[in-house]
Amino acid sequence: MADIKEVVHEVVDDKEVVIQETTAEHGTEQDRDMDFWEGVEDERTRVYYVFVDDSLALRIVAGLGYDLEALLGETILFVKKLSDVVPDECQSPAADVVGHVLRFLIFAIADEHSERLNPNVWYSTRLEEPLASRNYLQGSVHTSEPRDGLKPSK
Fold this sequence. Notes:
154 residues; seven-stranded mixed beta sheet
């Protein structure tokens, strides 16, 4: 379909993971409390659906904040669990399917904006219950190869 775009297709912990962006939902969810840093002048939203082994697992609303130069300065991911195919809690960061999915999505968004990234671009996550918080899922966004090698293939 024209309004669905696959942005990530990977294997995580022996599970096939597909992240799809629904372009028809761009601009929805504007009522969320994005709480961007003060340098953000333009706020946009996107909606992504995550499938794990062909089962719908997560719905992610991405808040994208752009500065005065239209550079991406901040991304906030609001994550809702839709099925039990993903665990509520992180057993360990090495095998955290939810964490891997979110980091793959951040890398895909950063790659898309590679020419339009604020040098201090930052991301954070807001996980809805029953998903437990994963404090390591926030920080600077880099398009270079991460130390742990976790980056989507092209």
